[in-house]
Each structure stands twice: as C-alpha cells, then as structure tokens.
C-alpha cells in the first residue's frame, strides 16, 4: 500500500491507535524518538566545571575594572551531554531541509550546498577585515564581481555592499538621500518621507530614526499605490518616497514609472524597498523605473536563508544622483590592476561620501554565497528563477481560489499569493487557527496578519525551488483545512497544534510579559 507521497504505509488494520498512543505514559516522559529536552540549567550543575583548568599563576589584570564580579553560573555538561542536547533541539526545529516553507521567498528558501562549500573555502571563511589589502585580493575580487552583477541586474551605476540586512540598507539609502539634500542646501526644508500604508514596518521606522517626518500614502482597494495620491502629497518639503515593488500585497506597482517622474520633478528621491526583488530579477531593472536607491536582500533573493536571526546582507544600488554620496569602504581597481579599498570619506572619489555605515566591509560569507548562486545560474537561470517563483505563487493562488478569498480579486500575483479571512466568517476559526493547524500537518505556517491593510491576511510565498509535487501536497493540506473549517470542525483548530513539542502558547502574554531569565525552582520540601 502506498501513501499519496509514494511511500509504503502501514495497513489500516495494523495502524497504531493515535488516541491510545497519546494516553500511554512513559517513565521518562519520552515517546520513542520524541524526546523531552530540558534546559541546560536543568541538566547540568553550576557547582562543577565541565573542563579541568589549572589555577592561574599570579598576574596583573588588564580589564580596567571590568572583571566579572561573580561566577557566570553556567552549567557544566560532559561533551556527549552537550552534543545530545543541541542535536535533540535541532530535531524539534522546522527547517528548509525538513519541508516546505510557505513564507519562503521572504525568509526561507533552498540554499544550494555548493554555496556553502564555496563560503567555507580557505581565504573566504578565515579572512580578517584588518588583513593587508595585498593578502585579500581574492576576497576583493569577489566583492568587485558581485558588485558588477548587482549593477547589471538592476541597471544602476553604483552599489554599496556594506549593509548587513535589509533595514540596514534602508538606513544607508536614506542617509545618502539626506546627504544629497544637504549638499543642495535643502537639509532643513526637505524633511518629509512618503510611505505607503502597505509598506514594511521598517520603512517608517528608518525614516523617523533619521529625523524625517513620515506621511502615509493611502492604500486603495486594488492594493496599488496611485499617482494621484502621491501627487497630492508632493511639495518642497518632500525628500523621498519609500515604495516596495513588487509590493507587500504581492502585486507589481503599475504606476511606478509615473510616480518616480512626479517625485523627481518635485525635487525628491525614489527609495525602493527591494525585499521582493526575487520576483523580478532578470525581468525588470529597477534603474529603468526611475529608482534612486534600492536595497537588495542577498539572503532572500540569492539564496542563504536568514531565518533564525542571520547572517544577512543588504547591499544598496544607487542612481547617478546618489552615487557620489555612497559611504566608504568600496572597491576600486588601480592602474596596476590591483584592487584596493577606499576607506576614508572626503578624499578623492569619496569626496562626498556621507561617511562609514559599519565598522568593516559587510558579510563576506554572504557575498560568496550570493555570487556562487549567480554564477551557477547565469543570467537566463536567474530570470527563470523569478519566473518559477511567480508561477508557483499563481499556481497556489489558482488552486485555492474556490475555497479561500483574495482581497484584490482574481488577478495574477507576483511571487506571493495573498488571501484574507473573509472566507472564515461565521466559522469560529481564525487566521491564527489555520496557521497553528498547518503545524500539525507538518508545514511551517505562512506569513499571517501581514500586510496590515488586509484583514486576517495569509501571505503564501512558495519560492522557485518547490516542485509541483510539494506544492500539490501543501495545496491539498490547505484545502482539507479549509473544508474542515467550513463544515464546522472548530475543535480541530482551536486546540492546534497537538503534535508539536509544545502546545499553543499565550502569544499576547508572551509578548507583553516576556520571561527572559531562567529562575532555579525552589527545592521541594
């Protein structure tokens, strides 16, 4: 007997009873390979050390009074205990090697192992930012070639590689805009940044951080930003607009060229949030659309998932209007063919650079992975990756259109399909319930409740690397959940997830009253 995935299954007569299995208690609390894993503090003892250290000879401390005032109180474990602990934790974690991520293009997508091998090559993995430039010519060549590809793909004349994430890139772009405005003598008058209501939350935060006033561009029923709305906000006080394209509703902005032209005519700059560049690589060059600055998430568009906190990289491409204000460092080829880093702002080709954004040069490992991805795909391959991402998203959208509701009608999307919760009305089931039930089905949930302009949003991004087989299984699971919700099987959802290591948490309380420190329990009397 075969399952729907083509694997042998246990005949129904011999299938284990799920209810009895759930009721069966074990002495350890473990259930075969589903093992309970306590905290390190609960396993080890802080009263002994995991290694043998000799008492140090007399010495003079050089920490300037910053020595630890008390023991660090870390638990001691043997090497096998340490290994088992972290392996068991890894087995409880959902990863791209475990299954499909419905929020893939934005956060988790397949990272070819070739990229990892390249990033671990000697000279890349162990390079140090303070090495003499003569000893890092290969690393600088990678940066130079990566820059060439980014400029080719975007149609822009300059790129700053140093930002370490998308929000960091936003900061760089607006700092360059602020420097350009100051150079024109308008630093005190142009202090407004226009931000669509559907933008990423980091957009208004970045603008506010730099002292700009934020004005919202209203969201219309079709999910796009309209020229009339932007034009009505333009004036001598507008410094820039921050527009995502494709936008967070999964749609390409149809009036982006006209919006850019109107902004430029009013003396402003166009910052494009490049988080969704994955949908248009090889198809559209942002420079041709009138963009002045755009960050590119190397860790989204060119593999290397950044789920779990990093690392990331957010290079920013700049137009001719902003290129002179790009920060240092940047790579320059000398007359002798040797590559060098321009490190000082205010000198030579960096005469108008606004300064330095970060201590060193960015994330070398991310540069290598991204360049490896680009070189292994080539121009045609990168274009096909974009086309496949868009195709996969539209396949999901069309396959669920008869059961789920879409806020912007039955129109093609880019690399992400967006649904709202109108189809759940009067079912007693919420968007969050659907997400939790997906965990029981073996999937990481999709992005939920974003963008904020869509009520109960479910944003599904399948990525270009998912096969039709994996998409069909996800679609079938979503259809089964949708039909269960519509027929009133509320109990299936409100108690989910049932099969995860932990049941549903009080997420509101966890966000408002986080417990960030483990406290040793009092001894039992």
TrEMBL record:
Could you cite one Gene Ontology molecular function of this protein?
A: glycine dehydrogenase (decarboxylating) activity
Biased composition (Low complexity) is annotated at 11-21
Q: Which intervals of the chain are annotated as region Disordered? A: 1-24
Top-level EC class? oxidoreductase
Q: Which UniProt keywords apply?
A: Oxidoreductase, Pyridoxal phosphate
| Domain annotation Glycine dehydrogenase C-terminal: ranges | 385-482
Q: Which reaction does it catalyse?
A: N(6)-[(R)-lipoyl]-L-lysyl-[glycine-cleavage complex H protein] + glycine + H(+) = N(6)-[(R)-S(8)-aminomethyldihydrolipoyl]-L-lysyl-[glycine-cleavage complex H protein] + CO2
The enzyme's E.C. designation: 1.4.4.2
The residue ranges of the Aminotransferase class V domain are 187-307
Q: What is the recorded function of this protein according to its Swiss-Prot or TrEMBL entry?
A: The glycine cleavage system catalyzes the degradation of glycine. The P protein binds the alpha-amino group of glycine through its pyridoxal phosphate cofactor; CO(2) is released and the remaining methylamine moiety is then transferred to the lipoamide cofactor of the H protein.
- Report what the protein is called: glycine dehydrogenase (aminomethyl-transferring)
